[in-house]
């Protein structure tokens, strides 16, 4: 038998890309490729790209530039670009970087093996009518106690700064029967926590087994019935799609974790309108109240954009006020990055130094809230799912119910154990805890 071919796969960006990369690795595995961590020994290099901010796509071109000597030394090396830059730029990538052999958009991954066999340069950025997951091999690899499961893709919201509706296309939900079968299969292979993924996950409306659409709340309640599936999470949600049933599920679905990523982007109604968010700061705050009424200990996280075109000091102050009013467990904040083809990119930008200063101020406030949220856990009893051994002997590392990293001294602990602990200390980015008996 000839030696296995080697695939070097680099993933940029969001969790959806992480999930897609796993599925592509499996599709290429069926072609005889094994993964390598070393680009120099690869027969194929595949970069799964992100287009959400300018920096993310510039990184792709500098990484491609660095592959030039490899390609010169090994002309048979296949270089592929997948993901959202592939979708957005298509054949333009081949023009700018002739060393690239294939460009494959996120909806065409089932065609990757065929494209890799093809001798010339190929581009596929089609949105085929069928579900790409029907054509990708089922997952065989065992990847520890946590897994992602893509339940919907794409977005119809058209926030004026965002490329997702263009790169991932309009909102498509996967059928419920497939999702339940995939979840059961994951659990049979040792998975105890599933994170449901979608660019607009709570807009989920997958076809139910008896016809008719299911909401995300209904899907979560069905998953909650699967024995052995201990934890459910979902991301990323739009505030306007948090319906009553989904909110109620946070109170009564036992395996739905007390954690919710709920991006708000800005606290200024003027800016929210310009972003086409279709909610106000006040409607968001009322929503947060309803969610907390259903699940008082829920930890909220968010995304923010500072320096959106037209953002004044007063608008930015309104964002800080909203952050103070909510009290987040963590949040991502980004400087606005103009994406060609989006409506906001036509507007005059805020000066870079103003945006920088706002980013720093917002991040300082969020970091303080994160530390406060971690400190508030000290003395509390929480569940932890062990994901890997820690750096110290006898130590295990996992995530708490609230998705905080936790270190536990537990020489008997095994990866995949779901244990009860008492939090004893909080450091910059993690908690230390003591395992409780039982
Ligand atoms: N500039 C800056 N941040 C952006 N995001 C999306 N598009 C842009 C952009 N053009 C941020 C939003 C979103 C997160 C995934 O990325 O905050 O919620
Ligand atoms: Fe982008 Fe999210 Fe807005 Fe959709 S809802 S356009 S993915 S920011």
TrEMBL record:
<comment type="similarity">
    <text>Belongs to the methylthiotransferase family. MiaB subfamily.</text>
</comment>
<keyword id="KW-0479">Metal-binding</keyword>
<feature type="domain" description="TRAM">
    <location>
        <begin position="375"/>
        <end position="437"/>
    </location>
</feature>
<dbReference type="GO" id="GO:0035597">
    <property type="term" value="F:tRNA-2-methylthio-N(6)-dimethylallyladenosine(37) synthase activity"/>
</dbReference>
<keyword id="KW-0411">Iron-sulfur</keyword>
<keyword id="KW-0808">Transferase</keyword>
<dbReference type="InterPro" id="IPR058240">
    <property type="entry name" value="rSAM_sf"/>
</dbReference>
<keyword id="KW-0408">Iron</keyword>
<keyword id="KW-0004">4Fe-4S</keyword>
<dbReference type="InterPro" id="IPR006638">
    <property type="entry name" value="Elp3/MiaA/NifB-like_rSAM"/>
</dbReference>
<dbReference type="InterPro" id="IPR023404">
    <property type="entry name" value="rSAM_horseshoe"/>
</dbReference>
<keyword id="KW-0963">Cytoplasm</keyword>
<protein>
    <recommendedName>
        <fullName>tRNA-2-methylthio-N(6)-dimethylallyladenosine synthase</fullName>
        <ecNumber>2.8.4.3</ecNumber>
    </recommendedName>
</protein>
<dbReference type="GO" id="GO:0046872">
    <property type="term" value="F:metal ion binding"/>
</dbReference>
<feature type="domain" description="MTTase N-terminal">
    <location>
        <begin position="5"/>
        <end position="121"/>
    </location>
</feature>
<dbReference type="GO" id="GO:0005829">
    <property type="term" value="C:cytosol"/>
</dbReference>
<dbReference type="InterPro" id="IPR005839">
    <property type="entry name" value="Methylthiotransferase"/>
</dbReference>
<keyword id="KW-0949">S-adenosyl-L-methionine</keyword>
<dbReference type="GO" id="GO:0051539">
    <property type="term" value="F:4 iron, 4 sulfur cluster binding"/>
</dbReference>
<dbReference type="InterPro" id="IPR020612">
    <property type="entry name" value="Methylthiotransferase_CS"/>
</dbReference>
<comment type="subunit">
    <text>Monomer.</text>
</comment>
<feature type="binding site">
    <location>
        <position position="155"/>
    </location>
    <ligand>
        <name>[4Fe-4S] cluster 2</name>
    </ligand>
</feature>
<dbReference type="Pfam" id="PF00919">
    <property type="entry name" value="UPF0004"/>
</dbReference>
<dbReference type="InterPro" id="IPR006463">
    <property type="entry name" value="MiaB_methiolase"/>
</dbReference>
<feature type="binding site">
    <location>
        <position position="162"/>
    </location>
    <ligand>
        <name>[4Fe-4S] cluster 2</name>
    </ligand>
</feature>
<dbReference type="InterPro" id="IPR002792">
    <property type="entry name" value="TRAM_dom"/>
</dbReference>
<comment type="function">
    <text>Catalyzes the methylthiolation of N6-(dimethylallyl)adenosine (i(6)A), leading to the formation of 2-methylthio-N6-(dimethylallyl)adenosine (ms(2)i(6)A) at position 37 in tRNAs that read codons beginning with uridine.</text>
</comment>
<dbReference type="Pfam" id="PF04055">
    <property type="entry name" value="Radical_SAM"/>
</dbReference>
<feature type="binding site">
    <location>
        <position position="84"/>
    </location>
    <ligand>
        <name>[4Fe-4S] cluster 1</name>
    </ligand>
</feature>
<dbReference type="InterPro" id="IPR038135">
    <property type="entry name" value="Methylthiotransferase_N_sf"/>
</dbReference>
<keyword id="KW-0819">tRNA processing</keyword>
<dbReference type="InterPro" id="IPR007197">
    <property type="entry name" value="rSAM"/>
</dbReference>
<feature type="domain" description="Radical SAM core">
    <location>
        <begin position="141"/>
        <end position="372"/>
    </location>
</feature>
<feature type="binding site">
    <location>
        <position position="159"/>
    </location>
    <ligand>
        <name>[4Fe-4S] cluster 2</name>
    </ligand>
</feature>
<feature type="binding site">
    <location>
        <position position="14"/>
    </location>
    <ligand>
        <name>[4Fe-4S] cluster 1</name>
    </ligand>
</feature>
<dbReference type="InterPro" id="IPR013848">
    <property type="entry name" value="Methylthiotransferase_N"/>
</dbReference>
<feature type="binding site">
    <location>
        <position position="50"/>
    </location>
    <ligand>
        <name>[4Fe-4S] cluster 1</name>
    </ligand>
</feature>
């Amino acid at each position: 038998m000839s030696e296995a071919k080697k695939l070097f796969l680099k993933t940029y960006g969001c969790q959806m890309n992480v999930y897609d990369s796993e599925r592509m690795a499996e599709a290429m595995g069926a072609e005889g490729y094994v993964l390598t961590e070393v680009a120099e020994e690869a027969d194929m290099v595949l970069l799964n790209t992100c287009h959400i901010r300018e920096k993310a796509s510039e990184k792709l071109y500098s990484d491609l530039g660095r592959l030039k000597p490899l390609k010169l030394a090994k002309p048979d090396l296949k270089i592929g670009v997948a993901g959202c830059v592939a979708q957005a730029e298509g054949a333009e990538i081949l023009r700018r970087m002739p060393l690239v052999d294939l460009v494959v958009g996120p909806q065409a991954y089932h065609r990757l093996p065929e494209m890799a066999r093809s001798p010339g340069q190929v581009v596929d950025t089609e949105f085929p009518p069928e579900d790409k997951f029907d054509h990708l091999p089922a997952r065989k690899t065992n990847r520890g106690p946590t897994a992602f499961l893509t339940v919907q893709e794409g977005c119809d919201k058209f926030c004026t700064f965002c490329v997702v509706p263009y790169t991932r296309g309009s909102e498509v939900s996967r059928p419920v029967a497939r999702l339940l079968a995939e979840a059961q299969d994951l659990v049979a292979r040792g998975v105890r926590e599933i994170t449901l993924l979608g660019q607009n996950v709570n807009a989920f409306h997958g076809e139910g087994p008896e016809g008719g659409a299911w909401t995300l709340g209904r899907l979560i309640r069905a998953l909650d019935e699967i024995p052995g599936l201990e934890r459910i999470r979902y991301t990323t949600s739009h505030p306007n799609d948090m319906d009553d049933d989904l909110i109620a599920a946070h109170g009564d679905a036992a395996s739905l974790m007390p954690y919710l990523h709920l991006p708000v982007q800005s606290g200024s109604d003027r800016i929210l309108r310009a972003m086409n968010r279709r909610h106000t700061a006040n409607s968001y705050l009322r929503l947060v109240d309803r969610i907390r009424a259903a699940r008082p200990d829920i930890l909220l996280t968010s995304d923010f954009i500072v320096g959106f075109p037209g953002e004044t000091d007063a608008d930015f102050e309104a964002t800080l006020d909203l952050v103070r009013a909510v009290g987040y467990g963590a949040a991502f904040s980004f400087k606005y990055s103009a994406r060609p083809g989006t409506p906001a990119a036509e507007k005059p930008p805020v000066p870079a130094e103003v945006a920088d200063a706002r980013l720093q101020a917002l991040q300082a406030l969020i970091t303080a809230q994160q530390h406060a949220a971690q400190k508030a856990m000290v003395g509390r009893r929480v569940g932890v799912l062990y994901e890997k051994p820690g750096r110290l002997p006898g130590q295990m590392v996992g995530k708490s119910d609230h998705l905080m990293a936790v270190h536990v001294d537990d020489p008997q602990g095994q990866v995949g154990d779901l244990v009860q602990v008492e939090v004893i200390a909080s450091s910059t980015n993690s908690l230390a805890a003591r395992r409780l008996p039982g």
